[in-house]
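S2.1 Query sequence (G-type lectin S-receptor-like serine/threonine-protein kinase LECRK3)
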Amino acid sequence: MAARFLLLLVLPSLVFSQYCTDLDITASNNSPRCVSPSGEFAFGFYRLGSQSLFLLAIWFEKIPEKTLVWYANGDNPAPKGSKLELTSDGQFILSDPQGKEIWRPQNSVTAVTHAAMLDTGNFVLENRNQNLTVWQSFQNPANTILPTQTLEIGGTMYSQQSNSSYSKGRFQLQMEAGGNLVLNTLDPESGKAYDVYYSSNTNDAANSGNSGQRVIFDESGSIYVLLRNGGTVNIASGSSLTGDYYYRATLDQDGVFRLYNRDNSSTSWSVVKNIPDNICTVTPSNLGSGICGFNSYCSIDGRGLPDCLCPDGYSHLDPLDRKQGCKPNFELPSCQTAVDGWEANKDAVEFRELKDVNWPLSDYQLQEGPEFNKEKCKQSCKDDCLCVVAIYNTDNQCWKKKFPVSNGRHEPTQNVLQYTTALIKVRIKNDTIERCPDKSTLILVGSVLLGSSVLFNLFLLLAIPAAALFFYNKKLMNLRSVSSIFATTSVRTYSYKELDEATCGFKEKLGRGAFGTVYKGVLASDAGRFVAVKKLDKVVQEGEKEFKTEVTVIGRTHHRNLVSLLGYCDQGVHRLLVYEYMNNGSLADLLFGISTPDWSQRLQIAFGIAKGLMFLLLLVLPSLVFSQYCTDLDITASNDSPRCVSPSGEFAFGFYRLGSQSLFLLAIWFEKIPEKTLVWYANGDNPAPKGSKLELTSDGQFILSDPQGKEIWRPQNSVTAVTHAAMLDTGNFVLENRNQNLTVWQSFQNPANTILPTQTLEIGGTMYSQQSNSSYSKGRFQLQMEAGGNLVLNTLDPESGKAYDVYYSSNTNDTANSSNSGQRVIFDESGSIYVLLRNGGTVNIASGSSLTGDYYYRATLDQDGVFRLYNRDNSSTSWSVVKNIPDNICTVTPSNLGSGICGFNSYCSIDGRGMPDCLCPDGYSHLDPLDRKQGCKPNFELPSCQTAVDGWKANKDAVDFSELKGVNWPLSDYQLQKGPEFNKEKCKQSCKDDCLCVVAIYNTNNQCWKKKFPLSNGRHEPTQNVFEYSTALIKVRIKNDTIERCPDKSTLILVGSVLLGSSVFFNLFLLLAIPAAALFFYNKKLMNIQSVSSKFPTTSVRTYSYKELEEATGGFKEKLGRGAFGTVYKGVLASDAGRFVAVKKLDKVVQEGEKEFKTEVTVIGRTHHRNLVSLLGYCDQGVHRLLVYEHMNNGSLADFLFGISTPEWSQRLQIAFGIAKGLIVMIVDMRSLKGIP
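Output structure tokens follow.
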């Protein structure tokens, strides 16, 4: 048999009876054919079904269905009347009826004299004059090989496209140069071969003698690879069969290379071997659609053959060629809710389930965790416009897929407890969207209502900005720089208007301090909290000085025994302080009330005042005595919350307000830096509302709770009770148990997004970026010291928090020798960051030691995914970047999953400052302009792939391309086309003709990479070589505005309705506004009229008119200070020889002020003592109440205490006891005057 095989192989012309007698044939239904001597095979024109088209082909002649084994012109069938002829110059040519060439044998240079159809099925062209075989079909196979046929190195076969089309299909069988027999998928347009999905594994790179030389199909029906060393590797065997069989091996249209046989009695071919065994489970390539087309899936049917099926809600693009893929029976989500928005309507979305079906190469996001059950997976896909399918499995993983889905397959599992379910997102109603509903009634009603409000809206649009501009300019003129005066405080600022409203126009007086009147108020912005507002009506030198003192000193003083300063107002001429309100009244109420204290109580009061004064001095002068321990661990979140400051004052721990919101972070910050740069925060994912409380409980728990008592945060792994807390100068906040001399918890071991000098990152230590400038929630990036010793950066899934692939590594994991692996990350005091190895060596990450001078340092994982080392000297106004890790974040590829550094459909580019910026291509805009990393959305509807619904993508005039040089999205490819013919214009045209294509990347290697939506991992990669570059061709609609779904037939109605409605509203407005304005001014006039109160009992002091005192004080110009209930002004009495006096004025007399006025006139007017200031007279005219005292030339106690030269400790003690003594004398004298025993 071997001898026969060799003879047939190398001597095909020995059998003379095989020659064809007529080589001029015309294509028709009864064309002559050339039959082999045995009659088994025939060569001629083969009619394609009922069409008038023909293939030049070879077929099994004795089999009724005439199975084809070779064809010449599958891509270009010959019309009826086409002619095959052997020309006079020996050319063998197939031409159409017009004489245009359709086909000729390749590489046949020598003239042909004869042709033969052999019994092997080989058709041969010869030159008998030279005894030479010019061409043979066995060396140029189509989709089939036959026994005795070989496939040499480089030999290639192609599948046909479908049952009815013999064009080159999507699959290729090739004997590679290395000796492997392989199967590939092909790009349908360019013919480029994608990745291998089957290999014979007969390529031994180390020993070429073990590599394949050719594929042989022998007469027994066996197919094997003959190795160069003479050995063989079996591919398929037919030798076990007995009897007389036909054999053929065909690369079928489904991508399976099958060995068939058939005996003479059979009516059909039988499959002996499938290569590969299960085509559905192979993954041909990351590019292309897979075995079946896009949006379909492959399943083995009952006959053992692959079938391409569509999921529910989809249908085949071509029912006659199911491998072409599937299309949705509904419009794809537009991702533009203003255009259609069905995907935003949750009631319009449902899911169809397919068990054990998957599309493994269409993932763009993985979410996993115990909480990700099937329903949460559905919800996540429903909420995501990009998601078309989600794959849920019993490992609680949710793989979200983007359109088009590829490489679909049905993979049944034997384990009922482990399975996958495809959740297909479809529209509930699959019918075409009603684009033109009759909305004329709705338009009419709506436009009337709209028209009625147009004028009012215009009025507001003009009035509101005008008012805002007026108050803004007024504020700018009056506002003073607060930061230089109050740099060290954390109290809240209030506007004058807020406090005016809170006190109802400063109506209810509580009393008077040394320099101001105190009013009771209610803060509407703080859940109706009662406050005491101290007002300096007109600021003079001493009042201004006291204002600065109280804000800067009391603002940083926090103790349960002291009234807390909540805020202040420093607007224009207004100076006000806002304190917490004391419900139990003042010391004055106790001393001067109905029930007066006895002598023991007086003594306690005196010493209490002295003790309070001493404590206050010690507390506000920490340079005298200080400790790192926080004195008050019960803190409430508010604008003026107390904070725990480190001994040096460098760092502070407490509540950090988030911008203008009433939300707070429990945080640590640089206290001396004006912008208070954060270095740690506890509750970034859950900011604390105002009124939340941090407390150290009786059982030693350190807990942050919201106003309702619900826990927000507590230190992790802190089992031992806490007794003390300290803010260290390193920036480390420490909780301790002093009884056990044990550190319970520290911020340095629980970093947020920043580490500081002296801080380390141990194995397992993790930091997370914040989400954005305004949000401190966990962001999309993670820095971690892995168990193996590597310091790595990862991207994170934004919903589940799963870490994707590493995009930076310190490469300090030596699996061969663990002593060379990292042990911890150290940030030393010189500003250097390095990995300390287990063997004591170091690997540098970033260096700051070359810098000289006094610097602050910090290393932060920023929101853009860059781990940056910053520094800042004392004279600088901003932080400087010392090192970026990685150097260029834009050029890394974090993961095949996720969107990349920037969000979907955007690209990363380094700006002029060396910082990454996330940009949108032309025709796209940012999802969130305030957080550009969120990605971009198209400003037009995506193509629906449903031409009957919209069809703009089918209208070539509606499609245009914008170009971006050096920009790419490397992980969004679904098709590669290349070749000399693929210039930029052909690349554009290919994308334009393809509904799935949203971007094509063309490069100077004549490659055209087609991309699908959404685009991920975009980056700008400029090249230095002007001759080698890539250009992104962005497919957009020429008109980016919303598609006009229906012609607008309501313009006239709309305009008329607006005009009519506006007129009606304006008339009503005038009718209501005029009487309302009149009523308002009338009521205001009535409110301003006040009756004069009754007079006081007669006293021996003199009465003055209001005019006399106004002239004496120069219009109440020079303030001396403030008493408990009045403001004191300096004056000169012209009627008393120019005597200097102190005039105390009660500006607005309320109940308490009226009472005090009577008391002071009737009691103090007849009281005379060397230790008391004498009352000279009073004014009781209309609403005016004034008291005239003798003037004290030596100044006030406040000048002495808060002046430039502060008293020594001995003087302070004297003052404290002097105050007590003065109180005793005053109380005794007052009681005697009142006749009290």
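The longest strand covers residues 53-60. Residues 440-478 form the longest helix (39 residues).
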